Amino acid sequence: MNSENFTLSEKIVSPSYVRQGSQARRSHEQLIRHLLEQGKCPEEGWSESTIELFLNELAVMDSNNFLGNCGVGEREGRVASSLVARRHYRLIHGIGRSGDIAAIQPKAAGSSLLNKLTNSVVLDILKLAGVRSVASCFVVPMATGMSLTLCFLTLRHRRPKARYIIWPRIDQKSCFKAMITAGFEPVVMENVLEGDELRTDLEAVERKIDELGAENILCVHSTTSCFAPRVPDRLEELATLCAKHNIPHIVNNAYGVQSSKCMHLIQQGARVGRIDAFVQSLDKNFMVPVGGAIIAGFDESFIQEISKMYPGRASASPSLDVLITLLTLGASGYKKLLSERKEIYLFLAQELKSLASAHGERLLHTPHNPISLAMSLDGLQAENDKAVTQLGSMLFTRQVSGARVIPLGKEQTISGHTFRGFMSHSEAYPCPYLNAASAVGITREDVTLCIKRLDKCLKTLKKELNTAKSSSPVPPSSLEDTAGE
Fold first, then answer.
1. 485 pLDDT higher than 50
2. pTM, whole model, 2 decimals?
3. Which of 186, 206, 274, 305 could form a disulfide with 243 if both were Cys (CB 3.0 to 4.6 A apart)?
4. Is 97 annotated as ligand-binding?
């Protein structure tokens, strides 16, 4: 309804009523105008009606929704199912063009505007979360691993002679396979044990740079967010090393946006040294469906170079999901979620520590990890080699998802490289343990129920083990060999 239509409406309905409706409409439009003017996440969240109005306005700007449009090309935004069309708010053309994921589509002004606004709003949120000097970012419809691969492939053109990627070890398959898929040879740097924590071995990294030659190294591939007892890499020191040797530096910040500590490390690393790009997941940080990531950095031209490396158009779904989410939450709503996550981390640590003490275990001391915690399982290991993995199975079948049980001595071969002590980020971590994390969206009820079920599982398992000791052989139920989720 434009002003002319409102005027015509006054001939049908009482002008005072129409003017009231017009003012209500302007309230929605003013919010949209502020978004278009500023390109920032609104401080307060929008109502669903405002968001749907905005998305419908964008959709009518795409050619597939033009009244009387006649399409004779191979891609005209045709959708067979009306359910699918509604699921995507009739924004069918996706984002980008064949040569650049950030390019404007002539046939899809609305979808292109959606893409640009999403990238702008996400950039604002990255600054709000702690990386104040980030210069550019874009949402890519791939999860973290493939997004890292895109970064490595872009660097290939800058460093055609390079073969190696220096990678402080983290036992997570996708970031390792990202390097393999890009065609490079990962150089795995074992972590050093400091107390209970596994930390970056800076001396070994520098020795490896000298051994391989800086010109033969594509980049250093570091990590922030990770499972305890590993902690975020020493980003400032690595960034300084990269600047000293003129080696690019890519940071896997998978679920680090929710942590002020992880974001501060990236900000400081860029300030004192070199960080070329940092990559983060959409689903882990913003509670949207899996399938998107943010590639961000401090040099706008390099981030644009990465976006141009993406071949073809791309799905708009991840951009649409995160934009809807951030408009719903607003900056204040997202900050509140981050604050609540920190509070629950302390609550989880307290509850795990009490539970560990009650069962003769201990909460591992990992103060440099702001998201993940670990509880020792020495007692179970001493009782029975299979007991640790049995605990993981019991938790999973009792609907405790996300808890990771890490036994000793597991081996895993990935793309020809064998990791000893896989899942523990170390060839020989001193004890088996259980992980739990306080990630964005977690509630106190989640923690309370998890602790209650974990306590019950530990008691049940110990009872089974005691029974098994007195009546050999061990019951088959106690020998189930799975680490849970």
1. no
2. 0.93
3. 274
4. yes
